[in-house]
UniProtKB/TrEMBL annotation:
Residues 40-217 form the FAD-binding PCMH-type domain. This is FAD-binding oxidoreductase. PROSITE patterns: FAD_PCMH, OX2_COVAL_FAD. It comes from the Bacteria. GO terms for molecular function: FAD binding; oxidoreductase activity.
Length: 488
């Protein structure tokens, strides 16, 4: 974009906005581009910090009129930084964070600049004890999280986050402001509501706000816990876990983790362990008795607490942040029983050769209410998955990038026989056959919705719905897709 030639139009847009327009070099510009993954350093020409639906419409029209690429930034936690772009315009939603609660219907209205932290704090301060079906990490944005599906620690009790999405407001690329819910009369709107629930952020237009169903948990506090074992116990303990989780009620979620943790004999020293993050949506006594068979396996460390879910998220949620270091992230979807000896052996082999002590694997324990919804009822197609592992390969020196990316990529490539797909919220530009793996049988309908709502591909991006991009899997791996937001 020729900034000098367009200065008058930029000034005109700035005058029309109730929010802020920042140009490269201006105070606040770089701050507005901060995202979780420090590896992504894209530089747009303009940032618009919208403060109203009208600002969003004006910005969409401006970008189209001037041939500018536009991406939308919510919480900035996209693993690949798809909320940013080079040379174009970033629509930053961070000024729009209004939240309100209807106590009668137990519904929360929230604007899309908000992060889960804002909702947790709002609900804590409401004194109602109500909980959202929200993210484990408080700084994750609601906008991106929800559009990809959204696993919460209590999803086994209440469904995916999108199963608790009542309605949303979407500005489509034609500038129309659409109120979407499951009862829309207009078939286009119905399709869009379907697509926004699992089809992935950045594809359908700009989401302005959402209304979420929130819940009273089974008890005021939940039993939460951390249980760790030494890696040489993996075959025995994970083999047991694979079967044992099938006996648990929906109220119990037992997530997995494998990485470094403080040694019990000297907490200043970190050692590699694997284990579990436990959340029981019920009283501590029942929760502890459900855990007894796992504890009989002789863990290295155990800590159990009875606290509210929002307090747990606020205390523990930051532990999986990349936090401005560099990261590459891959994911997979595993069906019930998929932690076979062969699969566990792959985990053991790669974790024994992890190139960075900052890297780790975590996995979601899914199922329960998540699986009671049909695969095609929303765009989120992985209802049957039981475990959703992601590897976070994290490093600090730029020269270490190739070793760390190749390690994680080879790790999750070797796990492919144990996977049935991958999770679009951990979007990975090096994943082969990505569209099929993220969307399975829902992809043809998503393509139809995309063609109808964005016929000229204004919001296209490298792994947007409809993109023909396919990463080259030959060796040495081409790392270029990690740094591009658009198909050239
Ligand atoms: C530390 C950490 C913890 C996580 N924990 C969980 C978890 O517990 N469960 C889970 O399911 N996922 C989890 N995730 C994944 C997370 O859901 C995704 O990374 C999600 O895309 C982040 O949304 P965001 O708004 O923060 O990111 P962004 O990078 O801002 O946005 C992600 C995508 O959505 C688009 N987008 C953003 N805002 C809008 C909007 N208003 N309208 C239209 N498109 C928009 C962006 O352009 C981008 O393509 C976690 C990620 C991290 C980094």
């Amino acid at each position: 974009m020729d900034m000098a030639a367009d200065q008058a139009q930029i000034d005109e847009l700035r005058r029309q906005l109730s929010g802020t327009l920042l140009v490269s070099g201006q105070a606040g510009f770089q701050q507005a581009l901060k995202i979780d993954n420090g590896r992504v350093q894209l530089q747009p020409s303009l940032v618009v910090q919208a403060n109203s639906t009208r600002d969003i419409v004006l910005t969409l029209q401006f970008a189209q009129r001037h041939g500018l690429r536009l991406t939308v930034k919510g919480g900035g936690h996209s693993a690949t930084g798809y909320c940013l772009n080079d040379d174009g315009l970033v629509l930053d939603m961070s000024l729009m964070r209004a939240i309100s609660l209807d106590r009668d219907t137990r519904r929360v209205f929230v604007q899309m600049g908000a992060r889960w932290h804002d909702v947790y704090v709002y609900l804590i301060n409401s004194g109602t004890g109500l909980i959202p079906i929200g993210g484990g990490c408080p700084t994750v944005g609601i906008a991106g999280f929800m559009q990809g599906g959204g696993y919460s620690f209590v999803s086994r009790s209440y469904g995916m986050s999108i199963d608790n999405l009542v309605s949303l407001t979407l500005v489509t690329v034609d500038g129309q402001v659409r109120k979407l819910d499951a009862d829309c009369q207009d078939p286009t709107d119905r399709d869009l509501f379907w697509a926004c629930r699992g089809g992935g952020g950045g594809n359908w237009g700009v989401v302005v706000d959402m209304t979420l169903q929130v819940h009273a948990p089974a008890t005021d506090t939940m039993l939460t816990g951390q249980i760790r074992f030494l890696p040489d116990r993996a075959q025995d303990v994970l083999g047991f876990y694979n079967q044992w989780v099938e006996t648990l009620p929906d109220e119990m979620a037992v997530y997995g983790i494998w990485g470094m943790s403080p040694s019990p004999s000297d907490p200043t020293v970190k050692i590699q362990t694997f284990g579990f993050t436990v959340i029981y949506n019920g009283n501590a006594t029942t929760g502890a008795s459900l855990l007894a068979p796992l504890l009989e396996k002789g863990p290295l460390t155990v800590s159990l607490n009875a606290i509210t879910l929002p307090d747990f998220e606020l205390l523990n949620g930051a532990s999986t942040l990349v936090d401005n270091r560099s990261a590459y992230i891959c994911s997979g979807m595993m069906m019930p029983g998929a932690f076979t000896p062969d699969a566990i052996a792959v985990f053991e082999r790669y974790m024994a050769s992890v190139p960075s002590t900052d890297s780790f694997i975590v996995w979601t324990h899914a199922g329960g209410k998540v699986s009671q919804v049909a695969d095609d009822a929303t765009a989120f197609a992985h209802r049957g998955a039981r475990f959703v592992p992601e590897v976070k390969s994290i490093w600090t020196n730029a020269s270490d990038a190739r070793a760390n990316v190749e390690w994680a990529h080879a790790f999750f490539t070797d796990l492919q026989p144990h996977f049935v797909g991958a999770y679009v919220n951990y979007i990975d530009p090096l994943l082969a056959d990505w569209a099929n793996r993220y969307y399975l049988g829902n992809y043809p309908r998503l393509l139809d919705v995309k063609r109808a709502c964005d016929p000229d591909g204004f919001m296209d991006f490298q792994q947007g719905v409809g993109s023909a991009f396919e990463p080259d899997q030959s060796q040495p791996l081409d790392l270029a897709p990690l740094n591009r937001s658009f198909v050239d």
